[in-house]
Amino acid sequence: MNVKAVILLISVLVVASCGRFGGFTGGAPGSAREVADQLEIERLDRKQTTIWDALRQQRDNGDRVAVNRYLWNASLEVLDFLPVQTIDPFTGVIVTGYGTPPGGGRAYRATIYIKDPALDARSLNVAIMTRSGPVAAGTQRAVEDAILTRARQLRTADGKL
After folding, report:
1. Nearest 5 degrees, angle CA 83-CA 142-CA 148?
2. pLDDT 10s digit of each residue in the chain, 161 long?
3. HEC profile for the chain?
4. I want to staple 24 with a disulfide (CB 3.0 to 4.6 A). Which of 19, 73, 80, 152 is the partner?
């Protein structure tokens, strides 16, 4: 209970006690009860929000990021040789651990960010690294192209042109 509520409650009690003992003649009978009821209503309106309320409000407001499912699935298929460390379909982030591609000798890891519901190159952001640092821009572009190509194949197979 905050300080303002305590002061208001004490004031209401003082005024109510004056009315019962004849010291206060103004106001309708039972007005102290009405003020107490109003205080209870205000207290309930100011109740603290739980984590579940916050999550429910976020879901109801539609504030979540939409992720293109074809890009999502294509990313997982193309980079299936990499072990998935973190995956979050609500924000569109996939983080993998180090893995070696079939027939390759160098270990890679990737972070994929799908930031838009459109099946578009601008919706996809891929960062690939080796143990010694980032890969060449051509390698990264080739992986992005492979993901986009696979996503288009998935969309065509789904019958949604």
Report:
1. 80
2. 565 665 666 666 565 555 544 444 444 555 666 766 776 666 656 655 566 665 665 544 455 557 889 999 999 999 999 999 999 888 889 999 999 998 888 999 999 999 888 888 888 999 999 999 999 999 999 999 999 999 999 999 988 55
3. CCHHHHHHHHHHHHHHHHHHCCCCCCCCCCHHHHHHHHHHHHHHHCCCCCHHHHHHHHHHHCCCCCCCHHHHHHHHHHCCCCCEEEEECCCCEEEECCECCCCCCCCEEEEEEECCCCCCHHHEEEEEEECCEECCHHHHHHHHHHHHHHHHHHHHHHCCC
4. 19
Please report, as a single letter, which amino acid is at residue 110: A
